[in-house]
Amino acid sequence: MASSITGPTTATVHLVRHGEVHNPEKVLYGRLPGYGLSELGHRMAAGIAEHFAARSDAGQPVHLLAASPLQRAQETVAPLAERLSLPVITEERVLEAENSFEGLSRVKQQLRNPRWWPLLVNPFRPSWGEPYTQQASRMLAAAKDLSGQAVAEHGDGAEVVVVSHQLPIWVTRLWAENRPLWHDPRRRECSLTSITSLHIGPRGVESVSYAEPNHELLKDATALPGA
């Protein structure tokens, strides 16, 4: 892979998936504009703000905030930015993955149509969208730059929060854990407003941890495509 994270210092980059989206038509919205958080999604965003504020009060402050430019990511980071009085860097490299099925509703039913079958020939790349390697590469490049900036401004052990999207976060974790990037989407461990933390040291990403601060809210969430 072209991008990796190396350096003599340590930092942590917390990759946060956005909250639940208002999507009653169950559209695979991908990068489409106009998809903001549901009422539950806003509660999740508030919960993430409380989580990191509590860590800050305990001596583990966040030094830098960044988010995908998509509405759902910006709305998720907003309460945290307000709570910590930090500006938000809009980071294009942590955008949702490109997907040829973007805009379709009830995708599983749509895939019965032979017109879509040529896009399914290579699930390992995948053939219907942005290559997994490309997603991980851009995510890692963003993490490297943001962590480097945080360390330069705040010293060793700096922490960064980046609000992004399920698939790019998941393939970045797979890369960091030296696992194949192709996978069964049903087995992703990356719930709404979960935190996938990249712990960076002299050798690059040295470990990954995972947390679900809003675990109690997940039971009320609707499984939606395009998240």
UniProtKB/TrEMBL annotation:
CDD domains in UniProt: HP_PGM_like
InterPro entries linked: His_Pase_superF_clade-1, His_PPase_superfam, PGM_Phosphatase
Protein origin, superkingdom: Bacteria
Record GO terms (molecular function): phosphatase activity
Gene3D superfamilies: Phosphoglycerate mutase-like (3.40.50.1240)
GO cellular component: cytoplasm
UniProt-recorded name of the protein: Broad specificity phosphatase PhoE
